[in-house]
Amino acid sequence: MKKIFSWAVKIVSSPFVAGDKPEDALRVAAELNKQGVDIIINFLGEDVLTDEQAKENVKIYCQLLHEINTRGLRARISIKPTQLGLPKHIGLKLDKYAYRYNLADLAKVNLYYHIPLEIDMEGPETVNETIASTIYLKECLPELDLRQSVAMNFSDSFKWVFDLTSCKVKIRLCKGAYGGDLIGESGLRKRLLSAFLFLLNSSADPDVATHDMGLIGTICFLKEKYSNCLLSGFQFLLGFRRRTRRKLVEGGERVVVYAPFGTNRLPYAKRRWKYLLKNLPSFLLGD
To answer: What are the φ/ψ torsions at residue 204 (nearest 5 degrees)?
Structure first.
């Protein structure tokens, strides 16, 4: 029964996962680069339970960075804090400072290869330490090209945006795939647009991770209205909005695709299928 369940998860997650192995993600990166699209690679393996697992994940990412550099790919990595040892629950047998140690070890390799590092934002149990650790990392390695995801479904989202920007950390804005303390689609859209305008006018080079066509159109309009020369970009999940991202690339926009790989797919598949069910018509039409 367990094998059947694992097989089913693999089948339903296949449209938005590059494959099981690093080589699968690197192959997808090369294909997307030919289309004018950069790629963010994430290894599926959040919520580790031991320090050993966290250190092993660091090794996997370091090997991935080496391959990205060797092959000359326009690619970067994005990590989840719980993947590198940030405890999600009190009582887990993890070193209190394991996440910061592991993050610093990985970031030094990113810096060595001049490859950007992105940090995802997870659920409410970890967000404050995630932001604090990112700011601390930037203070320790000021030359690192670092981007932190900020979900706008938290009351403190604007504070985090300001604090990160003050420390020269770039930001990926999103509505929030994990639960926050704020809900309401229209309210989250307004909050994201307000944060985007602040970052755009601050020349902070924001990325926006969204598949909301209304939001994408509004952002393109705002860029043209305020200043088309200011840097910003769009991030999409692998398998979604293929036609839209092609049009954006043709229009000169910076487009990045988030492409995870790995066998631990269930947590990621749950989040993606929630979105997919809400947007099934456009997905079936090839967008």
So the answer is: -95, 5
Q: Which residues pair with 207 in a beta bridge?
A: 172, 233
d(CA 275, CA 278): 5
Token duo for residue 194: 């307000």
d(CA 285, CA 125): 37
Integer CA distances (angstroms), 257 to 159, 160, 176, 235, 266, in order = 27, 24, 17, 6, 20
Q: For residue range 150-165, what is the model confidence (pLDDT) as tens digits? A: 999 999 999 999 999 9
Give how far Cα 29 sits from Cα of 23, 77, 211, 234, Å: 10, 11, 20, 16
CA 41 to CA 39: how far, in whole Å?
A: 6
Give the pLDDT mean for 242-252. Answer: 93
User: What token pair was written down for 199?
Assistant: 């970052």
Write the single-letter amino acid at 283: F
pLDDT in tens, 71-117: 999 999 999 999 999 988 666 667 778 999 999 999 999 999 999 99
Q: What is the pLDDT of residues 189-203, one digit of tens each?
A: 999 999 999 999 898
Q: Does domain 39-280 have CATH number 3.40.50.720?
A: no
Q: How many residues does the chain have?
A: 287
Q: What does DSSP assign to residue 285? A: T
Domain residue spans in the chain?
39-280
**Beta carbons of 211 and 188 less than 8 angstroms apart:** no
Would you say the C-alpha torsion 173, 175, 180, 184 has a positive or negative sign?
Answer: positive
Determine the pLDDT at residue 268.
Answer: 80
